[in-house]
Amino acid sequence: MTYSPPTLADVVATLEVERVDEHHFLATQLDNPAHHIVGGHIAGQALMAASLTAPGRTPHSVHVYYIRAGDARAPVDIHVDVARDGGALSTRQITARQNGQILLEALASFSEPIESVDYHQPMPGVVDPESLPPIQEQLADYADELGGHWVRPQPFDLRYVDAPPRLAIELPELPPRMRMWWRPNGSVSADPVLGSCLLTYLSGTTMVEVALTRRRQTPLSAFNALIDHALWFHRPVDLSDWVLSDQFSPSGVAGRGLSTSTMYNRSGQLVCIATQELYFGRT
C-alpha cells in the first residue's frame, strides 16, 4: 500500500481526542511507514485532553517528557490528573500509555484571562512570506530523492527564510539560525486551545531540523528521538495568517541537541516560545 502523508484535516481530527470518561481519553495516532508515534502529535493530544478538563481556561505552558516509543497503528490511552485548580491558574498532570506502558508524562498549566502589563521582544526583520517559494519548489531539484520525501504534501505551508535542512547541510558554513514562515494548508478553527495544540504539533516536527543541521544531518539520515519538549503560549496564535518561527540550536553535547524556537504572528506579536531536546545515540 502506498503511504500518503497526513493532511491538515487528519492532524486536526486526531488532535480531537475521544473522551472515555471525565479524566480518561483515547487518542488515535497517525500511522507512517516506520509506525512510530510522532512526538509533537502525541504531545498535542495530551494538551488537548488536559484542556478538556479545564473549561474556561487556556493553556499557557506545557512540559513534556517522552519516555518510550509507541506504535502508531494502535490508539493511546491518556489519563489526566487534576493537580490543582486555583483562582486564576489550573495545573494538570497527563500520562499517556499504550499496552500498559508509559509513553509520555506531561504537566500543563492553564490560565484565565488576566489584565496586566504586556510587552515582548520584537520580531526580527525578515522578508515577507509571499516573496519566498514553498518548500516543495525550493527543493524541486531533489524531487527524486528518498521517494519524493522533500517535496511531499504537508499539513502546513512552509517557507524558509534561511536554507532548509537539505540545502543547509551542503553549505560550507552552516547558518546560525533556521527562520521559517508557516501557516496551515487550509482553514482551521480560531479556538485558542486548538491553536496551542497545533503549535505543539508543528514545533515537535520542525525544531528537530535545526539541531540535526548542526550535525550536517537530516531527519531521515540519522537516528533521532525526542527526549523532552516545552512550550510557553504567550498570546493566541492567528492561524488564518503566516507565523514566523525563529529557530536555532544553542547547544549540542553528549549525544543530545537542544533546539529553541520563538514564534511571532504576522502582526509581530510574540505568540510562543518552544524548546526541545533530542537524543542522537552513541557515536
TrEMBL record:
Signal peptide: none annotated. The keyword Hydrolase applies. One of its GO terms (molecular function) is fatty acyl-CoA hydrolase activity. Residues 34-110 form the Acyl-CoA thioesterase-like N-terminal HotDog domain. InterPro entries: Acyl-CoA_hotdog, Acyl_CoA_thio, HotDog_dom_sf, TesB_ACOT8-like_N, TesB_C. Belongs to the C/M/P thioester hydrolase family. This is Acyl-CoA thioesterase II. It comes from Mycolicibacterium gadium (Mycobacterium gadium).
